[in-house]
Amino acid sequence: MNDETLILTGRDLTPGAVEAVARGRKVAIARAAEQRLAKSRAVVERALAADQPVYGLTTGLGSRVGHKLAAADLAEFSYRTVRGRAHGIGPELAAAEVRAVMAVRLNSWLNGGAGVSPALAALLAEMLNRDLRPALYSIGSLGAGDLCLLAHLGLGMIGEGEAWLGQERGPAAALFAKAGLAPATLGPKDGLAIANASSFSAGIASLALARAARLGATAQVAGALALEAFRGNVTPLSEAAGAARPQPGQRAAAAELRDLLAG
Predict the structure, then answer these.
(1) Could you give the residue numbers annotated as active site?
(2) Residues of the chain with pLDDT under 50
(3) What pTM did the predictor assign?
Protein backbone atom coordinates (compact mmCIF):
# COMPACT_ATOMS: atom_id res chain seq x y z
CA MET A 1 0.00 0.00 0.00
CA ASN A 2 1.18 3.52 -0.76
CA ASP A 3 1.62 5.29 2.61
CA GLU A 4 1.51 8.75 1.04
CA THR A 5 -1.48 10.81 2.14
CA LEU A 6 -4.30 10.71 -0.41
CA ILE A 7 -5.49 14.18 -1.42
CA LEU A 8 -9.26 14.11 -1.89
CA THR A 9 -10.60 16.54 -4.48
CA GLY A 10 -14.21 15.43 -4.85
CA ARG A 11 -13.63 14.82 -8.55
CA ASP A 12 -11.24 11.93 -9.23
CA LEU A 13 -11.56 9.20 -6.59
CA THR A 14 -10.97 5.70 -8.00
CA PRO A 15 -11.88 2.24 -6.66
CA GLY A 16 -8.18 1.59 -6.10
CA ALA A 17 -7.86 4.75 -4.01
CA VAL A 18 -10.96 3.81 -1.99
CA GLU A 19 -9.38 0.44 -1.30
CA ALA A 20 -6.15 2.11 -0.18
CA VAL A 21 -8.06 4.26 2.32
CA ALA A 22 -10.00 1.18 3.42
CA ARG A 23 -6.66 -0.46 4.24
CA GLY A 24 -5.52 2.50 6.31
CA ARG A 25 -4.16 5.18 3.98
CA LYS A 26 -4.52 8.68 5.44
CA VAL A 27 -6.43 11.43 3.66
CA ALA A 28 -6.33 15.20 3.30
CA ILE A 29 -8.75 17.62 1.67
CA ALA A 30 -7.54 19.56 -1.35
CA ARG A 31 -7.54 23.34 -0.98
CA ALA A 32 -9.81 23.73 -4.01
CA ALA A 33 -12.28 21.32 -2.43
CA GLU A 34 -12.25 23.31 0.82
CA GLN A 35 -13.12 26.41 -1.15
CA ARG A 36 -15.89 24.54 -2.95
CA LEU A 37 -17.30 23.42 0.41
CA ALA A 38 -17.36 26.99 1.69
CA LYS A 39 -19.10 28.27 -1.45
CA SER A 40 -21.74 25.53 -1.38
CA ARG A 41 -22.42 26.13 2.31
CA ALA A 42 -22.83 29.83 1.57
CA VAL A 43 -25.71 28.90 -0.76
CA VAL A 44 -27.39 27.14 2.17
CA GLU A 45 -26.83 30.15 4.43
CA ARG A 46 -28.33 32.52 1.85
CA ALA A 47 -31.42 30.33 1.54
CA LEU A 48 -31.75 30.38 5.32
CA ALA A 49 -31.40 34.15 5.46
CA ALA A 50 -34.06 34.55 2.77
CA ASP A 51 -36.35 32.07 4.53
CA GLN A 52 -36.78 30.18 1.26
CA PRO A 53 -38.66 26.85 1.25
CA VAL A 54 -35.88 24.29 0.67
CA TYR A 55 -36.41 20.56 1.11
CA GLY A 56 -34.79 19.26 4.29
CA LEU A 57 -33.48 22.70 5.18
CA THR A 58 -36.54 24.78 5.99
CA THR A 59 -39.16 22.09 5.29
CA GLY A 60 -39.82 18.60 6.54
CA LEU A 61 -38.95 15.43 4.65
CA GLY A 62 -41.05 13.02 2.59
CA SER A 63 -44.74 13.58 3.13
CA ARG A 64 -43.87 16.50 5.43
CA VAL A 65 -42.35 18.50 2.58
CA GLY A 66 -45.16 21.03 2.91
CA HIS A 67 -44.45 21.58 6.61
CA LYS A 68 -42.39 24.70 7.31
CA LEU A 69 -39.85 24.26 10.09
CA ALA A 70 -39.59 26.88 12.80
CA ALA A 71 -36.33 28.82 12.70
CA ALA A 72 -35.45 27.61 16.20
CA ASP A 73 -35.80 23.97 15.08
CA LEU A 74 -33.60 23.99 11.97
CA ALA A 75 -30.40 22.65 13.56
CA GLU A 76 -32.27 20.23 15.83
CA PHE A 77 -34.04 18.85 12.74
CA SER A 78 -30.65 17.62 11.47
CA TYR A 79 -30.24 15.56 14.64
CA ARG A 80 -33.76 14.18 14.30
CA THR A 81 -33.05 13.32 10.66
CA VAL A 82 -30.10 11.16 11.70
CA ARG A 83 -31.57 9.63 14.85
CA GLY A 84 -34.90 8.87 13.23
CA ARG A 85 -33.36 6.94 10.33
CA ALA A 86 -30.58 4.94 11.98
CA HIS A 87 -32.48 1.65 11.75
CA GLY A 88 -29.88 -0.62 10.12
CA ILE A 89 -29.84 -4.29 11.08
CA GLY A 90 -27.82 -7.38 10.31
CA PRO A 91 -24.09 -8.03 10.65
CA GLU A 92 -21.77 -5.08 11.14
CA LEU A 93 -19.55 -4.09 8.26
CA ALA A 94 -15.88 -4.97 8.51
CA ALA A 95 -13.44 -2.16 9.31
CA ALA A 96 -12.26 -1.85 5.70
CA GLU A 97 -15.84 -1.62 4.44
CA VAL A 98 -16.71 1.14 6.92
CA ARG A 99 -13.61 3.10 5.95
CA ALA A 100 -14.56 2.73 2.27
CA VAL A 101 -18.02 4.15 2.97
CA MET A 102 -16.52 7.02 4.97
CA ALA A 103 -14.05 7.83 2.17
CA VAL A 104 -16.75 7.91 -0.51
CA ARG A 105 -19.12 10.02 1.62
CA LEU A 106 -16.34 12.52 2.34
CA ASN A 107 -15.27 12.71 -1.29
CA SER A 108 -18.88 13.19 -2.39
CA TRP A 109 -19.26 16.16 -0.04
CA LEU A 110 -16.15 17.71 -1.57
CA ASN A 111 -17.89 17.90 -4.94
CA GLY A 112 -19.92 20.74 -3.46
CA GLY A 113 -23.49 19.67 -4.15
CA ALA A 114 -24.60 18.71 -0.64
CA GLY A 115 -24.03 22.05 1.06
CA VAL A 116 -22.67 20.30 4.15
CA SER A 117 -20.97 22.33 6.89
CA PRO A 118 -17.22 22.34 6.10
CA ALA A 119 -16.44 21.35 9.70
CA LEU A 120 -18.17 17.99 9.13
CA ALA A 121 -15.90 17.20 6.19
CA ALA A 122 -12.82 18.10 8.24
CA LEU A 123 -14.04 15.89 11.09
CA LEU A 124 -14.73 12.91 8.84
CA ALA A 125 -11.23 13.19 7.37
CA GLU A 126 -9.75 13.26 10.87
CA MET A 127 -11.85 10.25 11.90
CA LEU A 128 -10.39 8.32 8.98
CA ASN A 129 -6.87 9.35 9.91
CA ARG A 130 -7.34 8.24 13.53
CA ASP A 131 -9.29 5.12 12.52
CA LEU A 132 -12.37 6.16 14.47
CA ARG A 133 -15.27 4.38 12.78
CA PRO A 134 -19.00 4.38 13.54
CA ALA A 135 -20.58 0.95 13.75
CA LEU A 136 -22.35 0.48 10.41
CA TYR A 137 -24.77 -2.32 9.63
CA SER A 138 -25.31 -4.24 6.43
CA ILE A 139 -29.09 -4.20 5.96
CA GLY A 140 -31.53 -1.31 5.90
CA SER A 141 -33.58 0.84 3.56
CA LEU A 142 -35.96 3.74 3.84
CA GLY A 143 -36.88 5.57 0.67
CA ALA A 144 -33.39 5.83 -0.79
CA GLY A 145 -31.59 2.52 -0.36
CA ASP A 146 -28.66 3.85 1.68
CA LEU A 147 -30.58 6.25 3.90
CA CYS A 148 -30.78 4.10 7.05
CA LEU A 149 -27.25 2.80 6.72
CA LEU A 150 -25.67 6.23 6.26
CA ALA A 151 -27.73 7.57 9.17
CA HIS A 152 -25.58 5.34 11.37
CA LEU A 153 -22.55 7.24 10.03
CA GLY A 154 -24.19 10.45 11.20
CA LEU A 155 -25.13 8.88 14.54
CA GLY A 156 -21.49 8.00 15.14
CA MET A 157 -20.31 11.44 14.05
CA ILE A 158 -22.45 13.13 16.69
CA GLY A 159 -21.03 10.82 19.34
CA GLU A 160 -24.02 8.51 19.71
CA GLY A 161 -24.39 4.78 19.23
CA GLU A 162 -21.45 2.38 19.04
CA ALA A 163 -18.13 2.93 17.31
CA TRP A 164 -14.64 1.52 16.86
CA LEU A 165 -11.24 3.06 17.54
CA GLY A 166 -8.80 0.74 15.85
CA GLN A 167 -9.64 -2.67 17.36
CA GLU A 168 -11.54 -1.26 20.36
CA ARG A 169 -15.34 -1.14 20.29
CA GLY A 170 -17.43 0.97 22.63
CA PRO A 171 -19.76 3.96 23.01
CA ALA A 172 -19.00 6.54 20.35
CA ALA A 173 -18.76 9.42 22.84
CA ALA A 174 -16.10 7.63 24.90
CA LEU A 175 -14.05 6.73 21.82
CA PHE A 176 -14.20 10.30 20.53
CA ALA A 177 -12.71 11.45 23.82
CA LYS A 178 -10.04 8.75 23.68
CA ALA A 179 -9.13 9.79 20.11
CA GLY A 180 -8.88 13.42 21.17
CA LEU A 181 -11.74 14.56 18.97
CA ALA A 182 -15.03 16.34 19.65
CA PRO A 183 -18.22 14.90 18.09
CA ALA A 184 -19.86 16.85 15.28
CA THR A 185 -22.19 19.75 15.88
CA LEU A 186 -24.84 19.61 13.17
CA GLY A 187 -26.21 22.70 11.51
CA PRO A 188 -29.31 23.10 9.34
CA LYS A 189 -29.44 20.53 6.50
CA ASP A 190 -26.39 18.61 7.75
CA GLY A 191 -28.46 15.58 8.73
CA LEU A 192 -29.83 15.28 5.21
CA ALA A 193 -26.37 15.84 3.72
CA ILE A 194 -25.03 12.91 5.73
CA ALA A 195 -27.76 10.37 5.06
CA ASN A 196 -29.26 11.17 1.66
CA ALA A 197 -26.73 9.57 -0.70
CA SER A 198 -25.55 6.29 -2.21
CA SER A 199 -22.11 6.33 -0.59
CA PHE A 200 -22.74 3.06 1.23
CA SER A 201 -23.39 1.20 -2.02
CA ALA A 202 -20.60 3.04 -3.84
CA GLY A 203 -18.06 2.30 -1.10
CA ILE A 204 -18.79 -1.42 -1.05
CA ALA A 205 -18.88 -1.54 -4.86
CA SER A 206 -15.50 0.21 -5.03
CA LEU A 207 -13.91 -2.52 -2.94
CA ALA A 208 -15.51 -5.19 -5.15
CA LEU A 209 -14.24 -3.48 -8.31
CA ALA A 210 -10.72 -3.14 -6.92
CA ARG A 211 -10.68 -6.84 -6.01
CA ALA A 212 -12.06 -7.79 -9.43
CA ALA A 213 -9.36 -5.76 -11.19
CA ARG A 214 -6.67 -7.43 -9.11
CA LEU A 215 -8.16 -10.85 -9.82
CA GLY A 216 -8.21 -10.11 -13.54
CA ALA A 217 -4.55 -9.06 -13.49
CA THR A 218 -3.64 -12.20 -11.55
CA ALA A 219 -5.50 -14.38 -14.06
CA GLN A 220 -3.52 -12.80 -16.89
CA VAL A 221 -0.23 -13.60 -15.18
CA ALA A 222 -1.38 -17.16 -14.49
CA GLY A 223 -2.38 -17.53 -18.14
CA ALA A 224 0.98 -16.24 -19.33
CA LEU A 225 2.82 -18.65 -17.02
CA ALA A 226 0.75 -21.55 -18.34
CA LEU A 227 1.49 -20.61 -21.95
CA GLU A 228 5.17 -20.33 -21.14
CA ALA A 229 5.31 -23.62 -19.26
CA PHE A 230 3.53 -25.61 -21.99
CA ARG A 231 5.16 -23.71 -24.87
CA GLY A 232 1.70 -22.74 -25.98
CA ASN A 233 0.83 -21.39 -29.41
CA VAL A 234 0.65 -17.61 -29.03
CA THR A 235 -0.50 -16.93 -32.59
CA PRO A 236 -4.12 -16.38 -31.44
CA LEU A 237 -2.83 -13.47 -29.32
CA SER A 238 -1.57 -11.56 -32.36
CA GLU A 239 -3.02 -8.16 -33.21
CA ALA A 240 -4.08 -9.51 -36.62
CA ALA A 241 -6.08 -12.33 -35.01
CA GLY A 242 -7.72 -9.90 -32.58
CA ALA A 243 -8.68 -7.52 -35.38
CA ALA A 244 -10.84 -10.26 -36.91
CA ARG A 245 -13.40 -9.90 -34.11
CA PRO A 246 -15.05 -6.69 -32.84
CA GLN A 247 -14.08 -7.40 -29.21
CA PRO A 248 -11.95 -4.56 -27.75
CA GLY A 249 -11.62 -6.30 -24.38
CA GLN A 250 -10.23 -9.41 -26.03
CA ARG A 251 -7.69 -7.34 -27.95
CA ALA A 252 -6.61 -5.52 -24.77
CA ALA A 253 -6.22 -8.81 -22.89
CA ALA A 254 -4.20 -10.29 -25.75
CA ALA A 255 -1.91 -7.24 -25.76
CA GLU A 256 -1.32 -7.66 -22.02
CA LEU A 257 -0.41 -11.33 -22.54
CA ARG A 258 1.96 -10.42 -25.36
CA ASP A 259 3.71 -7.96 -23.04
CA LEU A 260 3.95 -10.56 -20.28
CA LEU A 261 5.37 -13.15 -22.71
CA ALA A 262 7.78 -10.81 -24.49
CA GLY A 263 11.26 -12.36 -24.67
Answers:
(1) 55
(2) 1
(3) 0.89
